[in-house]
Amino acid sequence: MNYENYIQEREIIENKISELKSELTLLRENFIEKNKEFSQGDKVSVSDRYGTQNGFVVGNEIGYRNKVEPIIMKEKKDGTQSQHRLHPFGDVTIKKIN
Question: ∠ at Cα 66 (49, 96), nearest 5°?
Answer without folding.
Answer: 45
